[in-house]
Specification:
The protein is mainly β and 550 residues long. It has four domains: 101 residues, Immunoglobulin-like; 82 residues, Immunoglobulin-like, CATH 2.60.40.2340; 81 residues, Immunoglobulins (Immunoglobulin-like, Sandwich), CATH 2.60.40.10; 232 residues, Jelly Rolls. The chain is 4% helix and 43% strand.
Length: 550
């Protein structure tokens, strides 16, 4: 319809101007064109769509042939013109039958231009991690792989007999579908490079395997400090007695790291040091038999509780909206109350008559999911509280910016909660994109993520970098987000009628230093999709970041 209106206006303008003086000065609207859905066979998770960078990533399983990736579904912004090769798999089209696939070679990016009033060039890429292994008895440190040039190197003691190398594991291609010639059992003499033909998906790669003598050394590779813990890794020597010792700076006596704190993998060793003192300088060394590494120093960080962690600070503004911080205080937590207030609802508020046992506070936070009517449109509103702020309302939809600045490395999260689980009775009339349907049990969730998200990439601000737009599923937070450094969660899949203390560990995925923390508590896990139960309620109190291991 918009196209028709603009064509008519253009024709009228042309008739009203003298010949030779025609100018097209009618401003065209700016309509950002997006990939709104993407699915493929042989993936290890959902495809990741980033509308800020105009990119989509297909995470392939290692057994999938990257030269023949089968796309099964794609969807674009309505009215967008797109390359016709995608027509058979366009979601909702007559030609997009369920069995249709579009096969693409994804070794290189696929560029897709979407057009309406302007052109938007999207880039679709595939990522594939093939787990490879080449380990030998007596190995020192980690294997070095060069997948582009098909080489693998291991290092061994300089007194090792290269004519009688014992291979402990060899995997150079995808699991279950790879043939190697010669087999690992036939490879013993490594006085020179050994060549192995690696065949999968009907193609053969020639790999070069090196076993290289090296002077006996032990080396600290990385130390990642927390407040009361430190994570340390070292390159050692396989088949030796390996370990760590540490001490406070300025002291002479070393403390042996207990074996239960350590993980040994061939010539690699790592450990979680525990029960350290905050803001204290330490020294650590690694050893393999009589071989000892250089001493490395590190300093533990401060202990920093989250602001208003007992939810004792609240105020109401002139519109009677509850905010989880004091009047004229510094906001740290946000809620969906501003959006729900359009329908005269409050989804998150302080409660005085239902407190957890033993608390010294006067309030707990009640998160109550509700069904709202905004501008005549029924919209489900989940009870929630989160680090960040409510960024605005777009029609009947919400904009939320997640995250607050935070650079420490906690080990876990503890909190008190109770939960009333409702049965899902609120879903969108059309296009329910959540995994839940009417009649399913609702779920609550509490999760914590540490990351180094770039607001330019995720649409938020320097203070709260991730913007979630409930009109756009691709903007929703995912626990598989590649910029997450550590993550943990507790899912409530049944009612918890009594106040209960919960705790979960934060699992670190990277040694990068966080820039922000996201904490989200909600009575309806799929509230972003406007899906849940208006009978679901979560009460939460006295949250606590943990900085040590038991």
């Amino acid at each position: 319809m918009k196209n028709a209106i603009y064509r008519i206006l253009g024709a009228v303008a042309a008739l009203s101007l003298p010949a030779g003086c025609i100018e097209n000065d009618i401003p065209y609207p700016v309509v950002k064109l997006e990939i709104t859905a993407l699915e493929a066979n042989g993936t290890v998770g959902p495809c990741r769509i980033d509308n800020n960078t105009l990119t989509a990533v297909i995470p392939l399983d290692e057994t999938t042939d990257i030269r023949n990736v089968e796309l099964t579904k794609i969807a674009f912004t309505e009215q967008a013109a797109y390359p016709q090769e995608f027509a058979p798999i366009i979601a909702g089209s007559d030609s997009g039958a369920a069995a249709s696939v579009l096969t693409l070679d994804m070794r290189v990016p696929k560029y897709v231009t979407l057009s309406l009033y302007q052109d938007y060039e999207w880039t679709i890429t595939a990522e594939q991690n093939i787990e490879r292994a080449f380990k030998v008895k007596g190995q020192m440190g980690a294997t070095e792989f060069d997948t582009e040039n098909h080489t693998a190197k291991v290092f061994i003691r300089d007194d090792y007999d290269l004519s009688a190398v014992e291979i402990e594991s060899l995997k150079l291609g995808p699991r279950d579908i790879t043939a190697m010639s010669p087999a690992a059992s036939e490879l013993r003499d490594f006085r020179s490079v050994r060549f192995v033909d690696v065949t999968y998906h009907g193609r053969t790669e020639e790999w070069s395997l090196f076993v290289i003598p090296k002077e006996l050394t032990v080396e600290i590779l990385d130390v990642m400090e927390g407040a009361c813990v430190a994570w340390v890794s070292a390159s050692g020597i396989a088949d030796t007695q390996m370990g760590f010792r540490y001490r406070k700076n300025g002291t002479e006596e070393w403390t042996e790291v207990p074996s239960e704190w350590m993980t040994v993998d061939g010539g690699n060793i790592s450990a979680e040091l525990r029960h350290l003192e905050p803001e204290t300088a330490y020294e650590i060394t690694a050893y393999a038999d009589e071989n000892i590494s250089d001493i490395v120093s590190f300093t533990t960080s401060v202990l920093l509780p989250l602001p208003n962690s007992g939810f004792e600070e609240w105020h109401r503004d002139g519109k009677n909206i509850f905010y989880p911080y004091s009047q004229n205080g510094t906001p740290f937590w946000g809620t969906g109350n501003e959006g729900a207030s359009v329908a005269n609802l409050t989804v998150t508020e302080p409660i005085t008559n239902d407190l957890r046992p033993g608390t010294a506070g006067k309030y707990s936070a009640q998160l109550k999911s509700q069904n709202a009517t905004i501008m005549g449109i029924s919209r489900f509103a989940a009870g929630n509280i989160y680090t960040g702020y409510y960024a605005g309302t777009a029609g009947a939809n919400g904009l939320v910016d997640f995250g607050r600045p935070y650079t420490l490395r906690p080990t876990g999260f503890r909190f008190w909660a109770k939960y009333n689980q409702g049965t899902i009775n609120c879903v969108p009339v059309k296009n329910n994109q959540s995994p839940k349907v009417v009649g399913d049990p609702d779920e609550g969730i509490v999760y914590v993520a540490l990351g180094d998200w770039d607001p330019a990439k995720y649409g938020g601000s320097a203070e709260s970098p991730i913007r979630v737009d409930t009109r756009n599923v691709a903007s929703f937070f995912s626990s598989q987000n590649p910029d997450i450094i550590a993550y943990g969660e507790k899912i409530f899949n049944e009612s918890t009628p009594e106040w209960t203390e919960f705790e979960f560990k934060l699992e670190y995925r990277s040694s990068r230093r966080p820039t922000h923390i996201i904490v989200v508590c909600t009575s309806s896990r799929y509230g972003d999709y406007f899906v849940g139960s208006d009978n679901s309620i979560m009460w939460i109190d006295d949250i606590e970041l943990l900085y040590d291991f038991e």
